[in-house]
Amino acid sequence: MEMLKGHGLRFASLLRQEAYIGGKWVSASNGKLFPVTNPSTRKVIANVPDMDEVDTQAAIDAAYEAFQTWQRTTAKERSLLLRKWHNLMEEHKEDLALIMTAEAGKPLVEARGEIAYGSSFLEWYSEEARRIYGEVAQSPTNSKEMIFLRQPIGVTSMITPWNFPNAMITRKAAAALAAGCTCIIKPAEDTPLSGLAAVDLAEKAGFPPGVLNVVTASRKNTPAVGKLLCTSSKVAGISFTGSTAVGRHLYELCAHGIKRIGLELGGNAPFIVFNSANIKSAVEGLMVAKFRNTGQACISANRILVQEEIYDEFLEALKESVSKNLIVGDGFDKGVNQGPLINDSQLRKVENIVNESVAAGAKVVLGGKCLKKGSLFFEPTILSEVTEDMSCFQEEVFGPVISLKRFTTEEEALKIANSTDQGLASYFYSQDVSQVWRVARRLETGMVGINESLISAAEGAFGGVKQSGIGREGSKHGIDDFTYLKYLCIGVN
Fold first, then answer.
1. pTM value > 0.85
2. Which three-class secondary structure state does DSSP give residue 343?
3. Which residues belong to the active site?
């Protein structure tokens, strides 16, 4: 708390250290807590309730009871509440950013950007709430009329990740609330404070008790909490953002109850630079696509494919940009744009991938190791002469590591890009209009950035194919997971 006050936190009340169930801020029924640490300093900044199945059931019951009345609110009423929540997020955006930097290590400038991004979903769905339209179908006979209504599915569980602890909550919850669903949010154990702060503002906006609930749990209790959120008969659907392995497990848990499910899972994004590309723009695009949140993003560029003719020129320009523009350090320090990795497990993963790739023949152009022994800071790294069988190409690195491979033909680049069971995002740079259309259509991903790497927006349909997920978040399609079609057949004899 004192650390955040020292950085200018205005409203200490936003740093919540209780969970939120049924309109009340509560402790765990077992009385246990778990610590939340700052990954830059490894110091404890707060302690939050370590909840279990008992607390989770209480949240489910509260959400189920609230749904009985919330589903009957008008779209206008829901719209106004979402707009009030958005306005409060805007009013408190600096405090929300400070809390995020403290618990996630994200540079303050990036934290501010995420708060704006997260707030944009509240604004977007406050407007979309009033555009959930039904249909009138043409009947095959004169004796009946056929109408399709969209109705909310019910209670929804939301399990959110640590890398975007504000936006991944608002992106899900705003769509669900707009549709008329109630929510139980389980934030990541590394970053629960951002979610609690956001829901504190939702409470102030006037959402009724039980409509929004937050269950916090340690890494130890998370599996049991997640299982109940997936299997309870009172829960109609679940939305999850995280790894493919965990998503697959949650999918299995939801199968018994035939739950509605939305999964936004891991990626292994290719970033292709063709001979015709504007090299300066491509380098600038890669810097954003790779080093946003220190590479800890599901749509982060992972496999960099550069056409042979421009490979050397591109590598030199990239090396210069990484050397000049990236400053690693505590997210609160001025000028820093690369924070720490989130925890020791993530650091070990990145270190192992780099070491295995170098042992297999990759060349370290820059970086390649932990910045300081005992810290979670990893050097911005460039690996060249990479082959497809190396760890850095086979796995999603989730760290500040660029892996470069040469290619000769467009066909070769597409074959490499599509040679994975994941298909979330992809990027390519080309000034050849015919090539743009050919490649965009053939890339096996749910999203494609063409001469552009900043593809996320509330208006965009975010989601993947293959084992990168099910459903879409954002855009008008983000509401689809939270509504079902009811067919009314009316006799008019």
1. yes
2. coil
3. 264, 298
